[in-house]
Design brief:
- By secondary structure, the chain is α+β, with helices and mostly antiparallel strands.
- The protein has a single domain, classed as Alpha-Beta Complex (Sulfite Oxidase, Chain A, domain 2), CATH 3.90.420.
- It is about 20% helix and about 30% strand.
- The strands form 3 sheets. Strands 3, 6, 7, 10, 11 and 12 form a 6-stranded mixed β-sheet that branches. Strands 5-4-13-8-9 form a 5-stranded mixed β-sheet.
- A hairpin with a 2-residue loop joins strand 10 and strand 11.
- The longest helix has 20 residues.
- The chain is globular, with a radius of gyration of 17 Å.
- It starts with a strand and ends with a helix.
- About 35% of the residues are buried.
- The site of ligand MTE has 19 residues, from loops.
- It comes from Micromonospora globbae.
- It holds the Pfam family Oxidored_molyb.
- This is Molybdopterin-dependent oxidoreductase.
């Protein structure tokens, strides 16, 4: 951990930035349009794949509010975001009863309406800090940041925090997901697991060079 300009402790290689819509370049122009009654499709290594009404799923669990930082692998960190929603862990308990995941299903792929997907180790996803969030900064989550619901996994790089969640797939093996080789199977910020290739610090320089181009794509209307 190192001190950021504001004297705040930041993870290695990160610099503070304002939150703005961001993601993989190929999703910059894809605009998710959630339906009036969104559902979540639950499949994979399960006995009873199904679809669940998102409002029912969110309404069935105790709500939590959390302050946390979003650390993008490209070296920017949006600090002190206030998310509200339900714990992924609680949702998983409900889903486990409904769909019956295999005991060996130790990974979970989460997909967004834009087609983006990321895979988390199930025990990382079950950490109590991991939320399915539907509110940010005291307001309903907007389309820019993942409406109707997004995953928020503060200990992992932002590429695991899938926006516009529409599907959950239980898996026996890791799925490289949309970011493929650029991502790390676990993506823990504290260990600088930016990618499965090259040590984390090497990526700082690569991403700092590419970041302005990706930002420009996302800032276009
Ligand atoms: N559906 C979806 N979720 C996504 C992405 C994406 O392109 N599509 N990009 C990821 C990446 S790389 C980051 S850093 C964060 C950015 O979140 P923000 O747009 O709220 O800043 O979303 C993550 N979740
Ligand atoms: Mo990111």
């Amino acid at each position: 951990m190192s001190d950021g300009p504001a004297g705040r402790r930041l993870p290695p290689g990160q610099a503070p930035a304002a939150l703005r819509r961001f993601g993989l370049p190929q999703y910059a122009r894809v605009r998710a349009q959630p339906p009036a009654r969104p559902v979540v499709t639950v499949t994979g290594a399960v006995a009873r794949p199904t679809q669940i009404d998102l409002a029912d799923l969110m309404g069935a669990h105790r709500r939590h509010a959390r302050r946390g930082d979003l650390h993008c692998v490209t070296t920017w960190s949006a600090l002190d975001l206030r998310w509200e929603g339900v714990r992924f862990r609680d949702v998983h308990d409900t889903l486990a009863t409904r769909v019956g995941p295999a005991r060996s299903a130790n990974w979970v792929t989460v997909t967004g309406l834009d087609g983006y997907r990321a895979c988390l180790r199930l025990d990382d996803a079950l950490h109590p800090d991991v939320l399915l969030a539907d509110r940010l900064a005291g307001a309903p989550l907007g389309l820019a940041h993942g409406a109707p619901v997004r995953l928020v996994a503060p200990a992992l790089y932002g590429y695991k925090s899938v926006k516009h969640v529409c599907a959950i797939e239980y898996r026996r093996d890791y799925d490289p997901g949309s970011a493929r080789w650029a991502a790390h199977p676990r993506g823990r910020v504290a260990h600088e697991e930016r990618s499965r290739h090259l040590p984390g610090p090497a990526w700082r320089f690569i991403w700092r060079t590419l970041l302005p181009r990706v930002r420009r794509l996302y800032d276009e209307r």
